[in-house]
Write a structure and sequence with these properties.
Elements (H helix, E strand, L loop, with lengths): L2 E6 H11 L6 H14 L6 H10 L2 E6 L8 H17 L5 E3 L3 H4 L21 H22 L7 H12 L2 H7 L2 H14 L6 H15 L5 E2 L5 E2 L1 H6 L5 H16 L13 E2 H9 L7 H13 L5 E4 L2 E3 L3 H13 L4 H11 L4 H14 L4 H10 L23 H16 L1 H4 L3 H19 L5 H14 L8 E4 L2 E5 L27 H9 L2 E5 L2 E4 L5 H11 L26 H15 L3 E2 L3 H9 L55 E7 L4 H4 L14 E4 L28 E2 L3 E3 L3
Parallel strand pairs: 1-2, 2-3, 14-16
Antiparallel strand pairs: 4-5, 6-8, 7-8, 9-12, 10-11, 12-17, 13-17, 14-15
Helix pairs in contact: 2-4, 6-7, 9-10, 10-17, 12-15, 13-14, 15-17, 16-18, 17-19, 18-19, 19-21, 19-22, 21-22
Length: 728
């Protein structure tokens, strides 16, 4: 219930200078507010603001402390005014913003006893959502006051932007408040964020350059000058300036490595000055220094990290500007191929260069030629690349890394656009074959394999996801012995779902799986893969069943067609199997708990589908910090062939939990039939099995029984697979 009063300190200082005001206390702020309101014919609101400040009903926001004009007298005057405000308005909360680098110097620091210091953290997912909601609420208020009629409702625009920024490549940017603000501006003015990364980054770069225009510096004669005026004074346009920054970004990018995914390279002030000086017709260092002064005053496309050291606000901008430079090179294809072999830190630059050429320059011929070089052709019907004998980390992996890069590059162009040319259509067919080979033969590290699976989804994954594997009749040992007891602890990972239980609950958690007993089952077939989004989409289209909540429309996002369907309840899972029965004329159903466990572990009592070895990223998609298993989402089904069960079923551990037919009863094992146990007759909860992308390794055990789940609970990590009775 506070009235926000936002004051841009740079504007306040400009008013002080223009009016020749000498006051140095809180009265200075009141006079400024009174003048500001008078200029807008809002004089009557002055006393409202004044009373709110005195009664503690206003939040005073003093913005840009270190962006004051380059005048020590004005800076001291404003600083003394700020220091006096807590005494004048002791009940009003106040906030002063200043860049971290500037505030490290004593010149800007306020009394820390009165003004405690906080450093702005990255935004969480929830804060990003709140920011966007608030942004569009303000847009609606502003438009209603100004009589503006918008073509789209602000609630719909807010939801659209929230979904857009959750793309992994954009989410990294959206956590930065400045960059999220810029993205919101782009979205508000255009009605949407461009789908192509290159178009979005180009729009954001333009806005970050514009931020420097607001800074005015006084020249030696006392006249104010802006960034664009400095450029225009020597007939230099914005494009020429950007091209210099492109070249600078390209040369400094080589100083960072792939292990520093979020780090930007340091740019020494001397290097920046040299770059700008060379832009000037007479190579004026004084002119370059004035440009750098503007960059020091306000963060824009470059920020001052610490004295005499600059960098880009995010590594993505460094990569994008380097990509723009690469795209202008006459030997673009040859240079890109050379960089692709040098270091994987150049992969993102190459991808963005392809995007820049395709979307900003509207040219796809050279990008397609590059993809063709990365993706070898067949010779005389024989495939030149074989998945056999590829040792991880060896030179034999390089052709497959190039294929991964080729697939990603084609997506930068866009599937429809690439297929508009015969050359592109041939490349799609070639890539589809190679990427299928890559993901089904455990080539490259799991992260790249998962990305290749997503690319394959967009190109059209032609694997047979309806394939079933046979589990023969016979007996097996179901459940764990007490020797398999494992304790659990609560993990301090607030941004994830809860992936552990308290130590004192471990016994009750595992007790229901300790009763190891022998069970006989008839022969049956089970889905080789979890049911995918693509399979489930056919069911939704045919029956009108509600779509999973993470789909953007009637169909899943293109990159998720071959991922396991999630956000399905037990009832949805059962309905899918019943629908498939009607379509195919067979008897599909959910597996019983006993059937699921035998399909996962076979008859030798193994702990995991693959055996006794502890889970690794090559075997399962799960959560494990030490080994870097941090995908934190589903991946394409069947991309970890080494994790197959004895019968060839894939993803039986990790990726998603899977619904089974049984009601949950902690004591059922002690009384269950020894032959084809159907599960308890009644209950409140249903059983899920297998563990997921969000779970630690202990929850991937084939005999593990997690906490029971309500049957109408559709979660981000629960999926389904069906079984089929074998006819005699």
């Amino acid at each position: 219930n506070l009235l926000p009063i936002h004051v841009t300190l740079r504007e306040l200082a400009t008013w002080i200078d223009a009016e020749g005001i000498t006051q140095r206390n809180s009265r200075l702020l009141l006079d400024y507010l009174q003048n500001w309101l008078h200029q807008r014919i809002l004089d009557e609101f002055y006393f409202v603001l004044k009373d709110c400040l005195r009664q503690g009903q206003a939040l005073l926001l003093l913005d840009g402390f270190d962006e004051l004009p380059d005048d020590s007298r004005l800076q001291r005057q404003v600083k003394e005014m700020i220091a006096d405000l807590p005494d004048a308005f002791p009940h009003a909360p106040m906030l002063v913003t200043c860049r971290v680098l500037s505030y490290r110097t004593t010149y800007w620091q306020l009394d820390s006893e009165i003004w405690p210091v906080f450093e702005l953290a990255e935004l969480t997912d929830k804060q990003i959502t709140h920011f966007i909601d608030d942004w569009y609420q303000l847009v609606a208020i502003r438009d209603s006051l100004g009589g503006v009629q918008r073509t789209a409702d602000t609630v719909g625009q807010s939801g659209q932007l929230q979904r857009a920024v959750m793309r992994p490549d954009l989410l990294r940017l959206a956590r930065n408040p400045l960059l999220l603000t810029v993205m919101a501006l782009v979205h508000m003015h255009r009605g949407q964020l461009p789908d192509a990364r290159a178009l979005l980054l180009e729009a954001v770069v333009e806005l970050l350059l514009w931020r420097w225009e607001a800074i005015k510096l006084k020249d030696p004669s006392g006249h104010e000058t802006s960034w664009r005026q400095l450029l225009a004074s020597v007939q230099i346009n914005e494009t020429m300036m950007k091209e210099r920054l492109w070249k600078l970004a390209f040369h400094i990018h080589g100083r960072t490595h792939s292990g520093e995914q979020e780090r930007t390279a340091d740019i020494a002030e001397s290097d920046l000055l040299a770059t700008l000086r060379d832009l000037h017709p007479q190579r004026s260092m004084e002119w370059a220094e004035r440009l750098v002064q503007i960059m020091q005053v306000r963060a824009g496309l470059l920020i001052e990290k610490r004295p005499k050291l600059f960098g880009f606000p995010h590594r993505t901008f460094q990569e994008y500007l380097a990509a723009c430079h690469l795209s202008t090179q006459q030997e673009f294809i040859g240079q890109a191929l050379l960089l692709a072999e040098q270091h994987q830190s150049w992969h993102e630059v190459i991808l963005l260069a392809v995007g820049y050429l395709a979307h900003c320059n509207n040219a796809i011929e050279r990008p397609l030629l590059l993809i063709g070089e990365l993706c070898p052709t067949t010779t005389g019907g024989a495939v030149p690349l074989s998945p056999t004998g590829v040792v991880p980390g060896s030179s034999a992996e390089l052709p497959w890394r190039k294929l991964w890069l080729a697939g990603k590059a084609l997506l930068e162009i866009g599937l429809v656009r690439a297929q508009s040319l015969q050359q592109g259509r041939a490349l799609v067919e070639r890539l589809r074959y190679y990427l299928t080979t890559l993901v089904t033969h455990d080539l490259l590290e799991p992260r790249l394999r998962a990305e290749a699976g997503t690319v394959l989804s967009v190109l059209g994954d032609e694997r047979d996801f309806d394939e079933m594997v046979t589990v023969p009749e016979g007996r097996f040992h179901m459940g764990n012995s007490s020797a398999h007891h494992v304790s659990f602890v609560e993990l301090g990972v607030p941004s994830l779902v809860r992936v552990g239980i308290a130590e004192e609950d471990a016994h009750s958690f595992l007790a229901s799986a300790w009763v190891q007993h022998e069970v006989a089952l008839d022969s049956f077939q089970i889905s080789r893969y979890p049911i995918t989004n693509g399979q489930y989409a056919r069911f939704v289209a045919a029956t009108g069943c509600p779509r999973p909540e993470h789909w953007r429309g009637a169909t899943p996002p293109p990159g998720l067609h071959n991922h396991p369907v999630v956000f399905v309840s037990w009832y949805d899972a059962r309905a899918y199997c019943a629908w498939r029965s009607a379509v195919e004329g067979k008897s599909f159903r959910l597996p019983t708990e006993a059937e699921w466990e035998k399909a996962a572990r076979g008859t030798d009592g193994r702990t995991y589908p693959w055996g006794e070895a502890a889970p690794t990223c090559d075997l399962a998609n799960f959560y494990h910090v030490p080994s870097g298993c941090l995908l934190l989402e589903t991946d394409a089904v069947g991309v970890r062939a080494a994790g197959a069960s004895p019968y060839g079923a894939l993803d039986m551990a990790g990726n998603v939990w899977e619904w089974v037919e049984d009601w949950y009863d902690a004591d059922y094992y002690a009384v269950s039939p020894s032959s084809n146990p159907p599960g308890p007759a009644t209950g409140t909860y249903r059983v899920v099995r297998g563990g997921s992308w969000a779970d630690v390794s202990a929850l991937l055990r084939s005999a593990g029984r997690p906490a029971p789940t309500l049957p109408d609970d559709g979660s981000t990590d629960i999926g389904v697979r069906c079984v089929l009775d074998e006819l005699p």
